[in-house]
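hey so u asked for the seq, here:
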Amino acid sequence: MQAPNPGIDSSADTIQVGRQAIFDRDLEVFAYELLYRDAAGNCTISDGDQASSVTLLNAFVEIGLHRIAGPHKAFINLTRHFFVDMPPIPFPKQDVVLEVLEDVEVDDALLKGVANMRAEGYRLAMDDYNFQPELAPILPLVNYIKVEIQPDGMAELERRMPELRATGAKLLAEKVETAEQFEQLKAMGFDYFQGYFFARPNLVRSERVGESSAMVMQLLARLNDPDVYMNEIVELVSQDPGLSFKVLRWINSAAIGLRSRVESIQRAVVLMGLARIRAWTTLFAMAGLGSRPIEILNLGLLRANLCERLCRLCAIGVPETAYTVGLLSVLDAMMSRPMTDLVRELPLSDNVKRALTHSEGTYGRYLDHAFKMERNEPPEHTCEGISASDLTEAYVASSEAAFMTMELLNDG
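ran it, structure tokens below
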């Protein structure tokens, strides 16, 4: 199964939230599958357990779908109860895809419920399909079929592709592990893709580093020099009209909430602070690279905001440095080069280098927490006094902040 079944202990008042991107054939984010565990890290529920299911859906409402999925669709696992008894679903129909779990009991009641849900206007998906005969009656009723990819079963999958296409559903490949699998599945005719090949950003791109990347590296070397002066940063930002525009737009955005408008680069840099402007100019430089999934930028922003929030919660370390570590953690994906090589070329402090290459030290611990939450694993050894609800809110708030920043980037 691509992701744990959504679950929640009805006695708990907090849940952990994660997500995994679903990409289209052009490697643009199409949707997110939302992943859930309870405060104890458990991920199993009993089919038809109304209390657990209602609590799960209430959690979606309390969080706000837009905060975790932004403008994208959200794939959500539902228990049998929601298809058989059809309680109200508190989401706009156009924003969600409701997944039928592969271990569901298939009978006339379920099939009628799935058909009724589709007739109501909901889009539906069959989860973790691996040609199980008992699931065949569901396939004509769903809009998407999520096919579980077996590394040693590609030839058999290609042989059986005609029967999948005959359903008329869009085909989503789960558990895509390598670039070779992605290209092969794309050639077979799959529409969407999900898996560790995409979730691990250092594997997303493989093209040669070109001249533009070399220029970016020169810029990053100065921006991340711990001894660089503020005036040098101002000068660097001022030399790039696009970068100047984006920095000024961000500092004047509603998210910042300044009382008076900032019209000078120098004042913007001072207000943002040296560490933050370093991180932001790094982001804008990376955004100027060639084609790559925009999710890499989004992921870097989410990690940056999450590391900063964890740093503030723990009150250990410098929040701006934690932000920079989170943001730079996707640099290997952006540059298509190993992180160990990149940190050797950037004059970063030793603690930042160790955090980026080995998840060591204070900032490395925050980054490791971010990695674990991306994988829907409960972080261990969180600072004393930090609760599961604190972690959940930090993750969701970081997701929201990342989407807001992406809107600013995309507008320019």
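Residues 1-15, 37-55, 200-218 have pLDDT under 50 and may be disordered. The chain has two domains: 15-199, 211-411.
lmk if thats what u needed
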